[in-house]
Recover the amino acids of this structure.
């Protein structure tokens, strides 16, 4: 298999796993009656951001193969997190007159997800050194 096909395969397999995991998270949260606020999207974005931060921190210290980076970073975590769903949820909340919820959804996703990346990188750097 040439490198390009292998890279597509890594992204596709990782993406299938990540998208399935996100779907499972949504179903799990809905089964607990969590519907008033889009916590499932927020949760997957925070978790995905944290693990992407760990991957980036690890890659700064250790060599990571292109296939691993594509499988984990682009495929699995890229499909697990979701900017498009986040965007649709913000528009839906705003359209329903839920402006505070829309604003909180934006703020939480941006601030907490960036903090999760930072926390993961700091955690990795303090535990590895």
């Amino acid at each position: 298999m040439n490198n390009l096909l292998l890279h597509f395969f890594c992204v596709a397999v990782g993406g299938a796993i990540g998208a399935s995991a996100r779907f499972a998270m949504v179903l799990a949260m809905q089964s607990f009656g969590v519907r008033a606020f889009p916590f499932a999207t927020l949760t997957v974005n925070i978790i995905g951001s944290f693990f992407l931060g760990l991957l980036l921190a690890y890659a700064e210290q250790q060599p990571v193969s292109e296939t691993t980076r594509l499988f984990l970073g682009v495929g699995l975590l890229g499909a697990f997190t979701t900017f498009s769903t986040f965007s649709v949820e913000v528009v839906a909340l705003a359209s329903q007159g839920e402006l505070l919820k829309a604003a909180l959804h934006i703020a939480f996703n941006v601030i907490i997800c960036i903090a999760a990346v930072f926390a993961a990188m700091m955690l990795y750097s303090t535990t590895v050194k």
